[in-house]
Design brief:
Largest sheet of chain B: 6 strands, antiparallel
Structural class of chain A: alpha+beta
Distance between the termini of chain B: 20 Å
Number of strands of chain A: 5
Helix content of chain A: 25-40%
Shape of chain B: globular
Strand content of chain A: 15-25%
Shape of chain A: globular
Strand order of the largest sheet of chain A: 1-2-3-4-5
Order of helices and strands of chain A: HHHEEEEEH
Strand content of chain B: 15-25%
Oligomer: heterodimer
Number of helices of chain B: 3
Chain lengths: 152, 133
């Protein structure tokens, strides 16, 4: 990875640096499947959209580079059948990955650049939430939650 | 719209609206993602009380907020005070001169995953009203 540059300013120079940083990230990605590439492209689009303070119209923080890096790392380690259905910016400055079947069956995972996976799931009438360390392998609890959301 | 100097206290039966300024907060099927209901780190989540106010007045307030913050208004998520109480949150009237119907959802937990969980329930129960403008 190239040096992390300050990209949270609002000047033209900051915007130029942000664009350069995105291109660096695109070039550094190991593309293994069209599905993974689509998610990675979506991530970069989210970063662009969530790059200024207050991007949600409230008190949202800009999406952090550490969070973005963690999201790339997390997604690249997923089996293809576990790819999230959507990627979005989380107002705390993190990346939100969502697995969604219905409003009552879903899993949200937030990667905030802290070396942790924050998650919360709705499983019918049940709710489950927690924190797991971000490691190479997807934690078993998340594997199970993804399977449950996808299969019901 | 309520009168700024004499707003009534919030009651359990009331409906609330949370303006949505990010298109990523709305799914393709018209349901709402939890981040539309994420509170700020140091305070209550701003909402508008939907009692004693006409729909066009609500949208006028939303449009004004969007213009001031240089964002787009996509809609709002309508939910109930009771929904907040069900997940351990409270609602307090915080009238503003430009928006006497303003209120805040308070009592959020400290842990990030617990905030997600509460916001997921509010998002699940909320009904999307798309901005007609």
């Amino acid at each position: 990875m190239t040096e992390i540059l300050p990209t949270t300013g609002v000047s033209e120079e900051a915007e130029f640096l942000r664009q350069e940083r995105m291109e660096d990230l695109r070039r550094s990605l190991e593309v293994v499947s069209p599905g993974l590439k689509a998610i990675q492209d979506e991530l970069i689009g989210v970063w662009q959209e969530c790059s200024r303070p207050g991007w949600d119209g409230y008190e949202a923080r800009p999406l952090g580079e550490a969070a973005l890096s963690e999201a790339f790392q997390f997604i690249q380690g997923l089996p293809w059948e576990f790819m999230p259905h959507s990627v979005s910016g989380e107002p705390g400055g993190g990346v939100n990955l969502e697995w969604y079947r219905s409003p009552n069956w879903l899993l949200d995972v937030v990667l905030a650049g802290e070396g942790k996976i924050f998650f919360s799931a709705l499983l019918g009438e049940r709710r489950l939430r927690g924190v797991e360390p971000l490691q190479e392998e997807l934690p078993e609890i998340l594997q199970n939650l993804i399977r449950r959301v996808l299969s019901g | 719209m309520m009168e700024y100097h004499s707003v009534p206290p919030v009651e359990n039966w009331e409906k609330l609206g949370r303006f949505i300024f990010s298109r990523n907060h709305i799914r393709g099927d018209g349901t709402i993602r939890w981040h539309a209901f994420k509170p700020p780190s140091d305070g209550g989540m701003s909402v508008i009380r939907l009692r004693e106010i006409k729909d066009h007045e609500v949208w006028a307030i939303g449009k004004r907020i969007a213009a001031g913050r240089e964002v787009n208004l996509y809609g709002r998520g309508d939910f109930g005070v009771q929904d907040c109480l069900d997940v351990g949150l409270g609602v307090k009237a915080v009238p503003l001169e430009e928006n006497p119907n303003h209120a805040e959802v308070l009592g959020w937990p400290g842990e990030r995953e617990s905030v997600m969980a509460a916001a997921q329930v509010l998002a699940k129960r909320a009904v999307l009203a798309r901005f007609p403008g």
